[in-house]
Amino acid sequence: MTGAQLKEKVIAYSKSIGIDKIGFTTADPFTELKERLRTQQENGFQSGFEEPDIKKRIHPELLLPKARSIISIALAYPSKMKDAPRSTRDDRRGIFCRASWGKDYHDVLRSKMNQMEQYILELNPEAKVASMVDTGELSDRAVAQRAGIGWSGKNCATITPEFGSYVYLGELITTIPFEPDQPMTDQCGTCNKCVDACPTGALVTGGQLDSNKCIAFLTQTKGFLPERYREKLGNRLYGCDTCQQVCPENKGKDFHHHPEMEPDPEIAKPKLKPLLTISNREFREKFGPVAGSWRGKKPIQRNAIIALGNFKDATALPELLHVLREDPRPVIRGTAAWSLGKIGGEEAEIVLKSAKEREKDEDVLAEIDRSLNMMDNRVRT
């Protein structure tokens, strides 16, 4: 079998198992990434979730000896939710980003890549294959661009001509020297809508992200959310889609190719108040299958409390009162104090003053004082 025939068989098989797009590139070093990755490290733009060793991020042969090529795959996911529930005055809802709709995409992609790996080894038993998705050392976007899947947009997402940026990416490094495809060239041009729309200014310039300002990253942290970002969080529980929603390349793009990626509306857009007292078991049972659960319930609960404050939802006072009095975690109690301050009113003030007399944690006390001062200033003006 010639190399071209082998490649065609792999492409045909990828389509048969539901892979939406596939591309091939060499395993040459990603030298063009080196400077950008160094800049990210030096400026403190990294989230801390990345592989810290830059050499591993740019040299595929360090991950698979004698690597000759990389196969990039993309699966399109939905951008619109069917029968999406609406927030009401009595039952406000939060939102998970589209990348956390349906079954955890890591599991979906790993399943596809495992099938691909087995098929390649059947065709060539002497080959070696290593696959990765999202948490691997290589940059999924850099591989996808060089393999012709899409270009790396100013919003730091891979934008495909067919599916926009609503795609999950994975790659397989292999010792087989597949003929590389033509890299995708940048097509953002002068468009700067994503940079301009970023709620926190996390897109420093087109294609350069300060992860520590990015709402998608901030929703996954476990400590107190910096106060300057709380209102900007809106009702987001996990992730942020703003830079994708404003992208002209995503206009009209909505694909429902994979049943496992279809969102359960009550999970993707859940009621906020029940999240404040959900048990660990209930959280795992309801949210465990989605990508947004990977950091556990604490960040989701903290974000839900912030969202209730942003809604100024007075109907949530009993739940917030319970959290402020009973929750053992200072971050959750302190965030509840902030939310009560945002909601305001006589009842919230009484609750905060009462909590101040009992509270021992300095961070929580600081949040209570800030909320009481905020309410006092509101009354004066």
How is this structure best described in words?
There is one protein chain. The protein is of the alpha+beta class. It has 16 helices and 10 strands. The strands form 4 sheets. The chain has a 4-stranded antiparallel sheet, with helices on both faces. The chain has a two-stranded parallel ribbon with strand order 3-10. Strand 8 (203-205) and strand 9 (208-209) form a beta hairpin. It is elongated and about 80 Å long.
Question: How are the elements arranged and paired?
Answer:
Layout (H helix, E strand, L loop, with lengths): L2 H14 L4 E6 L4 H13 L10 H5 L10 E8 L18 E2 L8 H19 L5 E4 L7 H7 L4 E2 L5 E2 L7 E8 L18 H5 L5 E3 L2 E2 L5 H4 L8 H7 L2 E3 L3 H4 L19 H4 L11 H8 L9 H15 L5 H10 L3 H14 L2 H13 L3 H19 L1
Parallel strand pairs: 3-10
Antiparallel strand pairs: 1-2, 2-7, 4-7, 5-6, 8-9
Second rung of CATH, namely the architecture of the largest domain: Alpha Horseshoe
In total, the number of domains comes to 2
Indicate the overall shape. elongated
Head-to-tail CA distance between termini? 80 Å
Enumerate the spans where pLDDT stays under 50 for 5 or more consecutive residues. none
Radius of gyration: 23 Å
Count of DSSP H/I helices: 16
How many DSSP E strands?
10
Order of helices and strands: HEHHEEHEHEEEHEEHHEHHHHHHHH
In which order are the strands of the major sheet placed? Answer: 1-2-7-4
Strand content: 5-15%
**What's the helical proportion of residues?**
40-55%
Quick check: average pLDDT? 94
SS content category = alpha+beta
Give the biggest sheet: 4 strands, antiparallel
The CATH class of the largest domain is identified as Mainly Alpha
Looking at the structure, the CATH topology of the largest domain is Leucine-rich Repeat Variant
